[in-house]
Amino acid sequence: MELRHLHYFIAVAEELHFSRAAQRLRISQPPLSQQIRGLEDELGVKLFERTKRQVHLTEAGKVFLERSYGVLAQLEQAIAVTQQIGRGEVGRLAIGFVGSATYTVLPDVLSVFRAQFPAVELRLHELTTQEQIQALYHKQVDVGIVRSAIIEPGLSVECILQETLVLALPETHPLSTQTQVSLSSLADELFILFPAKMGPIFYEQIINICQQAGFRPKVAQEAVQMQTIIGLVAAGLGIAFVPACLQNFHRSGVIYRPLQEQIPKTGLYLTWRQHDSSPVIRAFLSLARKTTQRESNRDDT
């Protein structure tokens, strides 16, 4: 039995007339009659009662018609779901992200992705850059949003945002009265830094900025989450270099000031397993690129 036999049977069952069914199927009547007889022989039961003037479904034919509808409906559903999966519209996606991404590109990307791919189940994990690398290797996340241009075997990386670093100061700090702060004025300050082992590239960037200004930062505290760093600044435990997006994190007791000098920017990067061909991952990467590019163009204007 082939799928076409079900279509032939349904056409005859709905028309209750072989000639009209043949016209509907765009075949001649004799082959159609032959196919129906072959189907009945295969099933070992009559599906139709035939007279010279009328065609009627038998009781077995009525049941077979109902089940045939169900088979075709399931097939259509299977085809639709398969095509959706192929387009990345159905499935699960685990996303790792650094906390600072929530103050810039991540909310917009997630909003647009949810609107376009509502059937994809999202699982979000706030992790440091190093934690995301390990999570990717262990397939605990599918895509990462990290703070550094990592170079790791088997992982692809792509920059989606470049932003300046600003200085976070306690609002009572003497430098808070300045509209811009010079790096040279920070030599004696206590710093709150992101731990080197959790984000070595970002950590080294901060160290290099200070060394180029003629000093090595005095580290008072280390903190893993950017929000924690800002909280420690508010408590007066030190100052910190943070991505400019952290200015969207409103915390009493903290002010942000740009630097006088031109310093290297910090980036946000997408990272994923190089050979992972999941349509859901491809769809997310494509949408993230488009969304962040629109945001970048809007900022430029």
TrEMBL record:
Q: Which Pfam families match?
A: HTH_1 (PF00126), LysR_substrate (PF03466)
**Where in this chain does the entry annotate a coiled-coil region?**
none
Q: Which PROSITE patterns match?
A: HTH_LYSR
Matches recorded under InterPro entries? LysR_HTH_N, LysR_subst-bd, WH-like_DNA-bd_sf, WH_DNA-bd_sf
Q: Where is the HTH lysR-type domain?
A: 1-58
Keyword tags: DNA-binding, Transcription, Transcription regulation
Q: Could you say which residues form the signal peptide? A: none
**Family the UniProt entry places it in:** Belongs to the LysR transcriptional regulatory family.
> Which protein is depicted?
LysR family transcriptional regulator
